[in-house]
Amino acid sequence: MDFTLNEEQQLLKDSVDRFVRENYELSQRRELVARPEGFSRDQWATMAELGWLGAALPEAYGGIGGGAVETMIIMEGFGSRLVVEPYFSSVVLGGNLLLKGGSEEQRNAILPALVAGETMLTFGYAERQSRYDLHDVETKATKNGGGYRIDGHKGVVLHGGTADKIIVSARTAGKSRDRDGITLFLVDRQADGVEIREYQTIDGLRAAEVELTGVSAGADAIVGDLDQGLPLIEDVVRRAIAALSAEAVGVMDTMKTLTNEYLQTREQFGRPIGKFQALQHRMVDIMMAAEESRSIMYVATLKLDHDPAESERAATAAKVKIGQCGRFVGQNSIQLHGGMGMTDEMQIGHYFKRLTMIDTMFGNHAHHLKRYAAM
Amino acid sequence: MDLNFSDKDLAFQHEVRTFIERELPDDIREKVANGYRLGREDYVRWQKILGPKGWLAPHWPKEYGGSELPAVQRYILGEELGRGHTPRLIAFGLRMVGPVIYTFGTAAQKEKYLPRILNSEDFWCQGYSEPGSGSDLASLQTRAVLKGDHYVINGTKTWTTMAQHADHMFCLTRTDPDVKFQEGISFMLIDMDQPGIEVRPIRTIDGSAEINTVYLTDVKVPVEDRIGEENKGWTYAKFLLGHERSGIARVGASKAQLRKLRDIAAKERAGDGYLIDDPDFSREIAQLEIDLSALEYTELRSLTGTAEGEAPGPEASLLKIRGTEIQQRLSELLMQTIGYYAMPYIPESLEYGWNEEPVGPEYAAPLAATYFNMRKTSIYGGTNEIQRNIIAKMVLGL
Fold first, then answer.
1. CATH code for the domain of B198
2. Is B288 a domain residue?
């Protein structure tokens, strides 16, 4: 058993931490959020140069050959300063879908460009009616000559307005909630019939509604196996959950630090408010929640390449625990900041919003607690 | 003991309910029901409809234009106003400074200010908190110095809700810096329309800007606009805080939110059915309904035990704590009903009259922002920690 990073991983962590410290002051983040695309292409190019976009991808595609731990390091660092570049949607979701399910042609054509920062990807899995069920797919792909015609709607597609290619789940067989009959397609954002409605999200990122009307896709656009897309989706979502858990841990650690500093500096009744026992105990509970979250995040991360059933349990447990801890840390960090916690000017509220939205992604803690109980 | 309302009370309830159904303008009802932002005009328009019935000031004595409704009817009124999706009544004049003026004010102050509050001609705001004085309010530093027939005031007030709309501010100022904190404070009525007052909005985490910082630079207040005695302001401030806490349970409004929660949960798909049928989610709703019922009867017990016109005692802090916890939980579950559609944030869509097609369900837009906004409720009006201190000290003698 070993919870330490190896030398290369430590170097990666140092480099990520330094980068976010230098580039992600709240004022800098604000400026990025206000841009038309909601992030910086220059920053993205820097991330490519530093090797982060390929840190968890094989060398054959221009990557560095790392894995889940490298993704964890990057996501935790990004969480600690609320990085807005589309690393999660493009690399964690898009990159893993192609790596785990793509044909050799697809991987060769796209992954090196992804690693170089030239191509961005995202994944459209949610639909208006689907709630958190990945198998609830009504978007249809019907045979059309040698290829397919795709019709339907994908909701809240992360960075859907800037991704060059969107991988969408569509139904090629069966009824709308069948586990079989789901197929993944690689769709060009600019293809005919793709309509994008982009918007800001409440945590300062971007997402889009993607309307697909008679979009034609060749058989070579299928990612993974026909009708058998769900196991691939579930595999990648486990990786996504581990990555988001790492981000959440980064967020919580910063919230813990900010709140603890506030308790030590804000004075009322002639002393720092951190001297009041009621607040001390709350602060201790925040610290404990952050530590528990880190532990369960490590489990979810390190089990990713084990037996899928075991990995699924670990990812689900992480979603529950981190969702609950995030709620506690978020709400109480605001409370301990008092009125200041409600202001847009302070950092703490921005972290709270991101942490709240992380809970929503791929199903909140209540959803996953029910799944875990049924396992 | 009897849990039922009397026939007279039931008739009153019917009267209020039908009045609201008939008189509340549709656009205002829609704004409140769907969480759109309200402007000053919306509040004023509704208050002017309600005023002639005597329902704006049911707790005021008749001699000052109030209707002196019995406690149970005041409760029914509040509950029906919440139920009917009416705008929250602006408390600063009606519940806060009004009672201070009719209790401690001079005849001239009563004549000058009370009718304009009742007629919704004047908007008031509250100058209490300062950047360095929040929970420890008595440490406030805004200075008032007597110069002939007026005070000159310098300082900074913050978290001032609706200062941008206000005509007047009631303001705690320090008139004697050399005594114990609580003893050197005076209660001033400030005309907001004068040089030296700068109102700067504070953007909050939900994206709105309903609170402000107010900078006071050489602001003039005639001596006759001081309430009561100099250096006795803390007494009046405490009296006011007692009134503020009454009604803070917001049972009626929470019941309306609970209905909304059920409505949305019945429309949102979850698994093979709807969210309302999900055992876990329906348990959460059940829990809230039970908590709300306990709060409701705690408030009724407190009301029926309070003499007419008096502020409730320190046990009212209980109503504030539980009331805000329930409001916060409601807003959290409402946000959870819509799953991923909590994420889109389109500020324009929170304004009434936005015509574009909604992103996701039509009720989704304000829910996440409202959840973030509602975190304020356990902070404002004395944090819930301070409320617990009050109960510990004043009720339990700890």
1. 2.40.110.10
2. yes
